[in-house]
User: Which sequence fits this backbone?
């Protein structure tokens, strides 16, 4: 049974969080005990950057935000998917041209990219920008008169999120792949292997130029595994054979 309790709406909190200082954000290599909530001024905001891993069928939208704490320490926060689109970058930039933009981000997780600690915001992430919240008001009071207009962020340097979208895999047989490749003894990097009927489907690419080389989807008949020697490394070959045994 649901019972109405009049008057509770006036005392129900607008938002709940537990702020963590930038220096106390836990090591991303360990599973966090809870989500991370932070407060800071929004110093820079990037445009939408599409990013796709080699295992994804489509790219994910990302938006990078640079936060600063009261001491001026910077922290990179990356919004993913729909959250990257929902964040109103133009409105925030317009606000940041006149005064500091103070925000609380809740429901983030610590991540490490190229040795740089950052936060990742996806489905659980929410933000409160220049709201009439005690912690935001106190942060503004402590901030003092210093003010630098908010800037557009162009991702560069270590840990930066840069555009990366892969084309759909090109379907070729091992013989077609060998015919296209003048380097008969070249080994390829194996990314994914699975059974497709009586054949094995392997996703491979050139390990020396992974970012620029095509990604190939190769169907391999296990009765013709000897033809794989020029295509994949011995470790990949052994992995394929183990699949046929298991």
Assistant:
């Amino acid at each position: 049974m649901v019972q109405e309790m009049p008057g509770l709406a006036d005392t129900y909190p607008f938002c709940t969080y537990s702020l963590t200082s930038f220096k106390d954000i836990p090591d991303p290599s360990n599973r966090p005990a809870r989500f991370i909530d932070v407060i800071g001024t929004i110093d820079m905001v990037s445009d939408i950057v599409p990013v796709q891993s080699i295992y994804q069928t489509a790219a994910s939208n990302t938006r990078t935000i640079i936060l600063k704490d009261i001491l001026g320490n910077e922290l990179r926060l990356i919004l993913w998917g729909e959250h990257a689109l929902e964040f109103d970058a133009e409105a925030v930039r317009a606000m940041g041209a006149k005064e500091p933009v103070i925000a609380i981000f809740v429901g983030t997780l610590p991540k490490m990219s190229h040795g740089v600690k950052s936060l990742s915001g996806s489905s659980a992430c929410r933000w409160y920008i220049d709201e009439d919240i005690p912690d935001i008001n106190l942060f503004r009071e402590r901030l003092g008169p210093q003010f630098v207009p908010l800037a557009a962020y162009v991702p560069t340097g270590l840990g930066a999120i840069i555009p990366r979208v892969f084309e759909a895999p090109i379907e070729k047989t091992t013989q077609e792949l060998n015919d296209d490749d003048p380097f008969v003894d070249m080994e390829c990097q194996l990314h994914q292997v699975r059974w497709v009927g009586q054949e094995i489907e392997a996703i491979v690419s050139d390990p020396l130029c992974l970012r620029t080389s095509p990604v190939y989807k190769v169907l391999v008949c296990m009765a013709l595994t000897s033809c794989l020697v020029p295509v994949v490394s011995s470790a990949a070959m052994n992995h394929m054979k183990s699949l046929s045994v298991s």
